[in-house]
Structures
1.
Amino acid sequence: MSGVGENQLISIQPDELKFLFELEKQSYCDLKVANKTEHYVAFKVKTTSPKKYFVRPNTGVIQPWDSCIIRVTLQAQREYPPDMQCKDKFLLQSTIVPPHTDVDELPQDTFTKDSGKTLTECKLKVSYISPSTTQRSSESGATNGDGQSSETISTIQRLKEERDAAVKQTQQLQHELETVRRRRNQRNSGNGLSLKLAAMVGLIGLIIGFILKLTLASPT
């Protein structure tokens, strides 16, 4: 069995499951599981409280040097745990499987320790974060310029920056599109004016030619 967060086959980020705990509300935490080998690796997620959490996917196969995201959802709870302490734990098992193995083709004894194959395990702890703690961290970061914000506040700030950048890029694209449309309309307007001018010149030429013809044909 390996230490928290990684083993010989895979790496797991983050190495601890953190959930924002609010009554009657679900919360989730994403785990990035990366295959560190040139082999196909199968994994399975287990927990000490299976009725409390929803894990998808809880079993899978990762291709060599690839990764996947596992979403762990904390079901809505009706009461707070004592002192906001959580004793729940997760166990992520992994083992090498034949190339191009599909998750539906995994034998039932794939994650059985006495099956004769090498089975590695990672333990993950669970912690709860209360909304009041997040708010206090935010206020502390705002009043103390030299202090470091919590990881949650940093994540929120990063998401806001990404959102603002996306909005700015969208506005820029809209401006460029409007410029292209304006130029196209100007070209179309110029082409229409040229056609009208050519028609007028042609009409004047016909009138002058007709007058000259009448003048030359009239008796002196």
2.
Amino acid sequence: MGLVFLLFLLIPYLSLSSEAKSPTTDQLTPNYYAKSCPRFHDIIRGVVVDKQIAHSTTAAATLRLFFHDCMVDGCDGSVLISSNPFNKAERDADINLSLPGDSFDLIVKAKTALELECPATVSCSDILAVATRDLVTMVGGPFYNINLGRKDGFTSNAAKVKYHLAQPTTPIDKIISMFEEKGLDVADLVALMGSHTIGFSHCKEFSARLYHYSKNADTDPTFHPKYAEGLKKLCANYTKDPTMSAFNDVMTPNKFDNMYYLNLQRGLGLLATDQVMASDKRTKPYVDLFAANQTAFFEAFARAMQKVSVYGIKTGNQGEVRRRCDAFNSIST
């Protein structure tokens, strides 16, 4: 890990970019816990390091958890809530059932440590935002500033999820529209999709590209032939074993870099929603830019993550600081 790990330890002292402001985000500040919980960053960083070293998929898992939280009614920790007899929560929506347990476990561990240090002070949504940033940095990605002071939301409804998160087969027009509704442009979309430079996807999510693709082709012709052949062998028994999966980035699966975009140019995109960006006239220029220039990708990714991190946030009496991240403080909520 070497240099990347050393830089990760220095992230509280770096400042590479700034967040856009709005009337709501003006209530956030990078020093929100400076007096109420001075060791906030140190505690999160310690939990993050231990978890990522023990389970190398934690970074990708937490990045996905963060995105699935923020895109549905904003960054308010609603995806962390467990269902109960009165409410089916977001985490039990079909698309969220594959969210890895390591990401939830990380937030539980961080919240427990922070409650021991400074009880009833740090929100679960702030923990998720900072842990995600720290993990991205730890695996080689860019550092970006996170303003703090989010409150945890009062609602979590599984029925809302499908309207805000794209499926692997969602058309690119619909995906662009979904992002634009949240103030994210095409450049943001392509940069955020670059998070697929780490992590994996289950075979069922791309099997339609491998088997019986169309009347004229058994396999999606945008696949590199040898890559498709390898995936078919890997996923041969996926209907019997739904846990079978493949790395999103076949070349550097555990490193946050721009290889994802180079893969798209070579027909090595795993999901249909990945590969289409290399040919669509709106997204292709950004794919080509990020493939040629990793710095441009990192800068665009940092900006986009900052925009996502303040989408739909709750402040003041719009939310609460949960005692447990998986449950509202009041049963009436």
3.
Amino acid sequence: MPTTRSAKAKSISHQERTASEPRNNELHKATVGQVTDVNDRIKTFRFDIVDKNGFNFLPGQWLDVFVPDLEKAGGFTITSSPKDALPQGNPNHSPFFELAIQKSPDNPPAAWLWQPVEEIQGKEISVRVGGSFVFPPPGVNMERPKIKRAIFIAGGVGINPMMSMMYYINQNYPNLEVRLLYSTKVPSKETSQEEVLFLPQIIDLFRIPRSESTKDRIELFFTGTWDGSEVNQSNDQPIQPLMSLTLPNLDSATEVPVIAWTHRINDIALSSAVGNKDEAKHTVFYVCGPPTMTDEIVQYLKEQDNVAPERVLCEKWW
């Protein structure tokens, strides 16, 4: 698990922070393709892989990203499916991968990618795969006891590795129940769902259940706004939709429960996610977010009866 960044460690590079993490030796070349503004703090990037054979990675892994004229790599988590990075035997498909990158002027690789699109589009970068926060969980037997549920708990850009995992599950594990607890701030009360990182894609992923037996569920926790305006209406009542904020296009075509709250992920939400004795025994948990949030949630989960500590996996973003 990568270490978190403290005040003393701000100058430590991504490669130094992740020195103990597994990483591949091979470098892959890619060019900057489509760049999309999610909001004024986050952009998503599509990179076209130069080698038409693509490359392999596990859902949840990150990349060492080497950009022109910078010696040290940045570290960014892949948000697309592993399938997208391979040729698939389809002449109309070119292998690619996607990243979501937060505006970080003090992070040179991120600052390079945040230049005007016309200055970087088509430019070549090199990437190397690394990381151990992956699905399926390494070293965990999926069959004894059988894993029937995957609970994803994300704070802010901690949603990034979980997107790749959920795409992968959607394509390969149709009977696995998936529950997402996603906590984030939003730009303002007038925010559209497109301005909440990956919210439209999450709703599309969950829109039609993958099998009749799954009880998939999305819980959104909106903890505040960047501009300081209030979104909090009540701490104990779900809001669906959240004013005009979150789900204006949610309709009867969405068969999966989506609930929006205006408070942080609390013990009540976590207890509900853990489920009853039988559910807890057959669940794997993934937690990714700010250090304090991640530590507190991981501790809570590991203390619950019938939750196997080795099935609680986490990664902290810096």
4.
Amino acid sequence: MAHCVYTTEQEVELLRERQVGVVHCPNSNFSLRSGCLDVRGLLHCGVTKIALGTDVSGGYTSSILDAMRCALHTSKAVCFKNDGQHYDPLTLPEVLYMATMGGASVLGLDAKIGNFQVGKEFDALIIDTAAPCGNPVFDLFENDTNKVCSYTLPLN
């Protein structure tokens, strides 16, 4: 299922019971002003197959990095709708998971792709941030370099 911005409690229960995957397309949702998906709410209700999508028919970019950024912003926007109730916005590790293993899981390909486990197909891009190009796939600030940054994700 894509978007799932306006699902009812009964629909969310069906998603959980039938283990249906949801593809969150935050750029498209903002561009079309269709709403903000409460990913944390879906996770809390037991919907665990959630991926990020770019949906360029409604959004303006095919960049998964932009989808990750928009998902973080969307999650923070959902905080505003909760009228001061405690709400934990999505974290970078959660959004990275949605962009990688989440997508593989929703497509039923998590045994073949989605991470760097031995035996899986290589499903990644190697990007030279110093290469000249007219339309970079991600933003660099003036003082940024192409040095590699590492971030260790906790394994569950």
